[in-house]
Amino acid sequence: MTATDYIGRPVLRREDHRFLTGGARYTEDIVPTGLLYTSIVRSTEAHADIVSIDTSAAARAPGVVAVFTEADFPGEELPVIPTDWIPAGVMTHIPTRYALARDRVRFVGEAVAIVVAETRPQADDAAALVAISYDPRPAVAGQEAALQPGAPLLHEDFPGNYAFLWHMGAPHEDYDTAAAGADVVLELRLENQRITAASMEGRAVIADYDPSTGRLKLTTGTQNIHVVRRNLSLATGIPEHLVQVVAPAVGGGFGAKLCLYPEDALLTVVSRRLGRPVRWAQTRTEDFTSTSHGRDHVEYVKVAATRDGKIIALNIDSYANCGAYISGMGAGIPTVFSLMASGCYSIPHASVNVHGCLTNTTTTETYRGAGRPEAAYLIERAVDAVAAKLEMDPVEIRRRNFVQPDQFPFLNGVGFPLDSGEYERGLDLALEMLDYGAARKAQAEARNEGRLVGIGIGSYVEFCGFGECSFLGFDRPSYEQVVMSASRTGKISAQVGIVAAGQGHETTIAQVVAEELGLPIDDVDILQGDTDIVHYGTGTFNSRSISNAGSGAKIAARKLMEKARAIAAHQLECNDDDLVYENATFGVKGVPAGPKLTFAEVSQEAVRGVRLPEGMDPTLKVIGTYKAERFTSPFGSHVAMVEIDPDTGAIDVVRYIAVDDCGNIVNPLLVTGQVHGGIAQGIGQTLFEHITFDDNAQPTSGSFMEYCLPKAHQMPHMETAHTVTPSPLNPLGAKGIGESGVIGPPPAITNAVLDALRPLGVTHIDMPLTPARVWAAIREAQVTKEAQAVIKETQR
Amino acid sequence: MKTALVPISFVLNGRPVQAEVEPRALLVHHLREDHRLVGAHVGCDTSQCGACAVLLNGRAVKACTLLAVQADGADIVTIEGVAGPDGLHPVQEALHRHHGLQCGFCTPGMVICAIDMLATEESLDESTIRHGLAGNICRCTGYQTIVDAIAEVAASGTKGA
Which candidate in A9, A17, A19, A709 is best for mutational testing of the B interface (most B CBs within 10 A)? Predict the structure, then answer.
């Protein structure tokens, strides 16, 4: 190993200093000259016609520059928010969503008016003076209720509040035939509850339109500057090449900061109207009501298995709550849930119907995992239910159904390709870390003492590194193009089309580049987050940054080195084969005392552009493109051991073990960080988090007072490990790790809880597993048991 | 509505400062808007997340829960004043070494809270540290590396600011 072999090493983050010292600049920290502040007036009604809006008092308030409603942007001047993804063949259009509500509001939190003032407090004061008169309509929050005949209708062009039906896999109606030979047939109804990303930095936007040039600069903490640029241009009519989108420091994204939001377009047209920069920053309550949420599926599952535990048929009908409109990837995410519905298993008949529903709630979107946690929770609950019915060890049933290593590349039950995998190896390692045999023995002893102890498994496989998928209706590039250049002094700048929100790209991408070029990592600078610098990109999501942009960077570095070698060979008057390159210096093979050229000297020649090989363009500037033809398939197994307090229902996660396989690892320190953070969010969903609405679709979880994020003392000590199964698809052999951690906890912990409670007669529970819910499940099972005993007694 | 401004003076990161503030102005807004010290972040509005924490007379306080006028006469240290001329504070160094930060939004609050804990707690074991962080939310790290970092500094015998 040489000093520049960076890949695989726990290199400390190069970006840390500014975050540790208060030097980082998030959107709300930036103050352009002439900045005005805004406050948005939002709907307090879940569903209503707007009768009138009186802005006169607000307009007269101190410091107020302007107040705008939709009436101030007549006709097509009012931006319509486009989507990023219309599922192929099942939707033709999306419900019209304006940047400010026009005539009618459809969820609590929808923007109705915006106040612009010299200071933020003045804007907030004046916003309270905007008087809106509503004529309320009946509202509906739940997806199943929204589909009932006679339910309140949100959009006249979407009858029955039905947005789409997406199907993957075998014909649904063939289930009975496929299940004909089954010994066990089970039906489950599972809720994958609505939760929210809750980045510590809420959304914030600065729009700065320059009337003299027609150029717009939009600063916002987005994960995807290029899709914001595209959709902002579509929404406002500003030509795309005149739109600059900048993501400064991003205080967490987790999927909720991927799309164009109405406020981005609203601030843009307000800035264009006033000719001054304007800033908006969310309150936390606005984040709860106006940033897209995640999950929210109600899943009906039919599963059939033989006596020896072989699963032979799986039918799923999942009802996905899209909210009041279709957010950026809001229709796509529920559909891709179907790709992973058969999990790590070889299931001959797998069929998935996804029903997209519209309700009077905040929109839903990508949230960390985006389809995979929903799928893994479903299949892992189903597999455990079958195992329990057959009185089979949950480990054993998984072994009997896992796709085997020699079956890859494997077309899974719904017809989606998986690149590589060794599922049993990961599970074995997790069980070894737990000492499964000893843990089962301890559980048996605990049961004898009347204690409630359970062990649960969550095995999963993912799709990552967003591959070409026109079949899903995804119309954005799946490649990443890295523009790389060497300065006159031989230092490297690499422009990448991804955007970090804590992932550490300035370290990991630099590791890849520095190793490929044989240069110290400090000679490599990574540029991201500005469309004027990085012209093309697809953004940071789907755990694609290393597999796609990292691979693009490796390819670019290789091209750059080829050019450098050609110049060096030309200067040293030798063939490429005769070049040696060590310690960033070129020499001639077999002539140790001969002439030498440092990489910096070669770059200097390239910039000067005179003594280059015939026909060669000056400068070491190259473009490396990695085309992701297919998705990678990270996988793993998480195991949880829990103890439940029978008196309170409180769950103690005694052990939490995560074995993840993300292919080759560039930086183990940062990979562990991603796993830890994912597990915390997964535990959040499993035990604490729930976005709720009352019967009138009024939100009842609008701050951290009602919505519980895990705190340090509520987290178990996490034990992590990895198996390494390289992806055959990209030059790094990387699969992706950003979302793995969040997938395991819901099935692992819920299965552990059910394992603990099954002797009491509890066979079902829905997340979040709050003490109240666990206690109620225990109580209900006791009551049922007592009632059955009474019935038996009476019958005797 | 015209409100009389209130004159205040306090020590900010070692230097005396004077200002006139609205009576209702929160300390965090005063620091961010009037002194351009934007390292203290507003993450929740309801005093749960701790991203706004600063040291007031050596103790960690949530600057979103104090009025600026309450800083009158106090000694305030923000994240910008934590690192000394010789480099980062041991807590900052430890967080860096342990990868105890990702997006960085909660980090200033974590540093301030850790300095308070190190200065005031007799002994810091894992459980004490975890409970000591109950007022600081991190959505990125899962806390484990933050806890490890603080434990390491505690074990080295370093005491607070």
Answer: A19
Kindly report, residue by residue over A485-516, the tens digit of the pLDDT: 999 999 999 999 999 999 999 999 999 999 99
β-strands A111-117, A36-42: how paired?
antiparallel
Checking phi first, is residue A603 left (phi over 0); if not, alpha (psi -120 to 50) or beta? alpha
pLDDT digits (tens, 9 = 90+) for A53-88: 999 999 999 999 999 999 999 999 999 999 989 998
Give the H/E segment covering residue B94.
Answer: helix B90-97
CA distance B86 to chain A (A): 13
3-state SS assignment for residue A250 = coil
Q: Which of A201, A252, A676 sits opposite B142 (nearest CB)?
A: A676
- Chain A, chain B: beta-carbon pairs less than 8 Å apart: 176
- Among B33, B92, B141, the residue with its CB nearest the CB of A20 is B92
Decide if A705 and B105 are in contact by the 8 Å CB cutoff: no
Smallest CA–CA distance from B110 into chain A, residue: A20
The reply to whether ipTM tops 0.95 is yes
Greater confidence (A470 vs A764) lies with: A764
Give DSSP secondary structure letters for A413-480.
Answer: TTS-EE----HHHHHHHHHHHHTHHHHHHHHHHHHHTT-EEEEEEEEEE--BS----GGGTB-S---E
A664 with A733: CB under 8 angstroms? yes
Instruction: Indicate yes or no: CB of B134 within 8 angstroms of CB of A712.
Output: yes
Which of A21, A201, A680 is nearest residue B142 as measured by Cβ atoms?
A: A680
Taking CA–CA distances from A682, the nearest residue in chain B reads: B142
For A243: left if phi > 0, alpha if psi spans -120 to 50, otherwise beta; the answer is beta
